[in-house]
Amino acid sequence: MGDSRVRRVPGAARVVLACLPGIAAAVGLVLCAAGVDRTTSRRAHPVVTRPAVSHSAAKPRIVPRTAWIADAEREQPPPRYDDRVVAVFIHHTDSPNGYDCADAPRIIRYLYVGQVDSRDWDDLGYNFVVDRCGTVYEGRAGGVDRPVTGAHTQGFNHRTAGIAALGTFTAGVPVPQAMTDAIAALAAWKLGLSGTDPRAGARLVSSNDLSRWASGTAVTLPALAGHNAGYMTSCPGAALTARLPAIRQMAARLQGRR
């Protein structure tokens, strides 16, 4: 479950932008200059430019939040955004597993009311929720195509997206294949928007002393990580955590990576 406690506050939301140093660009300029120097002493040859390899993935079908929120929606501040998403955190909702998938919207609405009313959060913490039949639901408001700042992994909500598996996946609990397939497809698409390999690491900066690292600490975490990678928790459960390596590999394949 998400642990970041974002309170509802009036006024415009603040957009937090994080930029990485342009070392790669600087190196490219140096190499380009060196190549020009060499060509002055020999016959010029046409420069062949190879197109960059795209590692995007198809966008899965995502059910909009209007399908589950109904009349439960509360007044809330505008969404907050980052510049891009470079990592996703996988959660479980710690709710019962034996539901009919037709009841998923009602269960997500119940989770929303619990987080907004009981915990006084500003919205559902997760960006997406996936049920056991593999249906993907929009969670937090702000637009599924945009880098919405969530409230799912305390200390690491910036430049990340939270994907919650609807259910409880502790040791020995079966994780439905349809669910892991959908998580992989969703992660492949979302990370593909920033060109991120799901098997790689992502450089993130802790924003909260209650995470595993003090606020301001830069760390490298898996680009497709369990909630427990950034916060002291058993989420997303031992069974789902054990499936993460396979989910990373599947997401990479969906991006066309080898």
- Give the count of helical stretches: 5
Order of the strands making up the biggest sheet: 1-4-3-5-2-8
**Percent helix:** 25-40%
User: In sequence order, what are the helices and strands, one letter per element?
Assistant: HEHEHEEEHEEEH
Radius of gyration from the alpha-carbon trace, in angstroms = 20 Å
What is the residue-averaged pLDDT? Answer: 85
**Termini distance?**
32 Å
The total of beta strands comes to 8
Strand proportion, as a percent range, falls in: 5-15%
| Shape estimate | globular
Which stretches of 5+ consecutive residues score pLDDT under 50?
Answer: 2-51
Largest sheet: 6 strands, mixed
Broad structural category: alpha/beta
What do these coordinates show?
Helices cover 27% and strands 13% of the residues. By secondary structure, it is of the alpha/beta class. The longest helix is centred in the first third of the chain and has 17 residues, at 23-39. The two termini are 32 Å apart. The model is unreliable at 2-51 (pLDDT under 50).
Short characterization:
This protein has 258 residues and is an alpha/beta fold. Helices cover 27% and strands 13% of the residues.
Task: Give the key terms.
single chain; 258 residues; alpha/beta; 5 helices
Fold blueprint:
Layout: H1 23-39, E1 62-63, H2 66-69, E2 87-92, H3 104-118, E3 128-130, E4 136-138, E5 160-165, H4 177-192, E6 201-205, E7 218-222, E8 224-226, H5 238-254
Parallel strand pairs: 1-4, 2-5, 2-8, 3-5
Antiparallel strand pairs: 3-4, 6-7
